[in-house]
Amino acid sequence: NSSLRSLDLRDAGLDAADPSGELVPLLAETLATHATLRWVNLDGDRLMIRQLIGAERTEKLDFSGKELQASSAVVIGALLSSNTTLKSLILSHTSLKSPAAAASIAQGVESLARGGSLTHIDLGASGVAKESTSRIVQAVTGTDLTSLGLARCGLDEKHGSLLAECIKRSGKLATVNLATNRLGAAGAKPIGDALKVAILSLKELDLSNNKLGPEGCKSIAEGLKFSKAVQSVDLSANKAGPGPFPKAFAIAIKSCPTLTSVNLRGNDIGSDAMKGIAQAIAIHHSMTSTDLAANGLTDDCAKALAGVVRASAMVKLDLSENSLDAKGQGGKELAEGLKVQSKLQCFSLKGNPLSQLSLQELSYAIRDNKTLTEINLEGCKLGKEGKILMDRAKRAKLQILM
């Protein structure tokens, strides 16, 4: 058919009708060479054929959130094999659980990597099998890739060396998202070593919720000490604890002048161990965002945290879900920090039970601080008097969450 422009096969049941897996690749081959066909619909979403094969130049293809059936994924992977212009491929949250679908996508990415155009790939929560993920990481290693997204991809400690090699050999890799995997301490060790090599390229690293533990977090901190470019580090929910990590990370902060964002939420670091980190952040001239929520912090480190409040570049600070006023003094220390005119705009003390004295001091500080635009006091047990104090502290362009 030399005039066909579209093909709708939504009700054809290709996945069920092709148990051997031979029909869909044959269809993909036909689609790739058809002179007039513009799109095909296999499961509810149109696949733009000329964009996939690169005949119609496009730099980005975004399939995120689409419930792609196996047949669609196989066609996408097959058509990408002839594309030499695509720069960004996003397949996050696409449920690519079929082995045939994952293998086809991996093959497509391998072809893109050989073509040299691909700079960004995101497979986060796509369901791609570990074997195919490994193929993809190997394919992009040593290329001009700048961003790699593999969050929720089922990666474990065995993938650590593979990922480390990718970080070391990909000279332009700036963003790596490995959140919510199971790399563990063993997987973190080679990645930490790789950070000592990728000192000029890597800018954003997300290893949140990876079961790294104290030693794994320390490995990452040791690697970060050598970085000359890193801007954002997320190590939240890794059970870092008060052991070897805090001291190493405090040194890393001092060694990274480019660092702007740190997330250590939910690591049970404790007050004594957090003091060194807080002191390092307080004297850092580039840090704009810090999350230290849910770390078992008490009044004992409130004075050090007040220094973070006063930090010269700090814009957003989250100290929620701690016990910073358990002795009735922590809130007062933080209020003193707020009285200094800084750049702090968003401040969260959510879930910290605050005494009436601390609330009074906070109300004065909030009223006088002209840069603050939002303060979160939800779950702070304000009581009637506390709410009255906060109502009096309200001013234009300031939101007080209670």
UniProtKB/TrEMBL annotation:
Cross-referenced Pfam families: LRR_6
Domain of life, per lineage: Eukaryota
Keywords: Repeat
UniProt keyword Oxidoreductase, yes or no: no
Keyword flag Repeat: yes
Gene3D superfamilies: Ribonuclease Inhibitor
Protein name (record): Uncharacterized protein
Protein species of origin: Haptolina ericina
